[in-house]
Amino acid sequence: MTASKIPLAGVIGSPIAHSKSPQLHGHWLKTYGIKGHYIPMDIGAHDLQDAIRMLPRMGFVGVNITIPHKEAVLSIADLITDRAILIGAANTLIFRKDGKIHADNTDGYGFMENLKTGAPDWNPRSGPAAVLGAGGAARAVIASLLDAGVPQILLSNRTRVRAEKLKADFGSRLQVFDWVQAGNMFDHAALVVNTTSLGMIGKNEMRVPLDGLQKGAVVTDLVYAPLRTQLLETAEEMGCITVDGLGMLLHQAVPAFERWFGTRPAVDSATRAAVLR
Ligand code: NAP
Fold first, then answer.
1. Which end of the chain is more exposed for a tag (fewer CB within 10 A), N or C?
2. Mutate to test the pocket of ligand 1, among 24, 164, 196 (most ligand atoms within 8 A of CB)
3. Which residue's alpha carbon is at the smallest distance from atom 1 of ligand 1?
4. Which pLDDT tens digit goes with each residue over 122-143?
5. pTM
C-alpha cells in the first residue's frame, strides 16, 4: 500500500447481503483509527477472475472469499498456503506488493481459536471428535483437529460419499458412520462439531438423536444464526460445555485484518456486540 492510498478490502460472494464481515472489519477499522474501507461485493462466477485481477489496481490490499467461490479462487491465485491446498478452498486473498495474489484459508484457525476461548479446558488428545457434515467447512475443521492431535475423528454426512472422500483425503484417523447412525458417534466423543447448515435460520432442524451426548463433552456449532441453536440448547441441558459459532467467524478474520491493515485486532465482547448489532 502506498502512503497516498487509502487501503481497501472487502468480501466477494454471491449473494453477499447476509455477510457479517463488513460489520466486523468496519468495527475494527473504527476501533483502531485506521483509514480504510471494507466493502461487500456481489460478483458472479463469470466475472470472478477479471474482478480479482482488477482489485489491486484499485487500491485493494486483499479480500475475503465466501460461498460459492472458495474453491474456484484457488485457480486464480499465484501462491496458495499448504493449509488452503489441504482444505481445497481459500477464504482470504492477500494482494502482495509484487503483484502476486496469495490465497489462504483461515477457517480452521478461527475454529480452533474459538474452541480454545470457549472451552479452555478441552484437550485435543482427550478423546475422539464427532463431526457432522462433510462440506467445505468440515474440511477446514477436520484439518485443524488432526493438526491439534485429536486421536480419532468420527464423521457422518447425509451424502456418505462426501464423507468417504474426506477419509480418502485425510487418512486413517477418520471413521465414517452412516447418517442414520450419526447419533452413535456421540457415545465416546469428547468433542462434537456440527458443520452442516442444519439448525440455521431458514433451514431444517437437526434430527440426529442427541441422547448419546456425554456429560462434560464439548459441543460446538458452526451455525451462528441463531446464536443458540437447538443442538447447543440440548447439549447444555445434558451437561455439555457449549461453544457457539460466532467466535469462529470473528477469529478467522484476525489474520486477514492484520495482513491487510497492519494491526492485529482483538476479539472481545465489543467485537461480538458490533457483529450482533
Ligand atoms: P457446504 O459445503 O454447502 O456443506 C453443507 C453441509 O451441510 C454438507 O455436509 C451437507 O450435506 C449438509 N446439509 C445441508 N442440508 C442438509 C440436510 N437437510 N440434512 C443433512 N445435511 C445437510 O457448506 P459449508 O461451507 O461447509 O458450511 C456449512 C455450514 O457452516 C453453514 O451453515 C455455514 O454458514 C457454516 N459456517 C460457519 C463458519 C463460521 O465462521 N462460524 C464458517 C464456515 C461455515 P450433503 O453433503 O449431504 O449435502
1. C
2. 196
3. 135
4. 999 999 999 999 998 999 999 9
5. 0.95
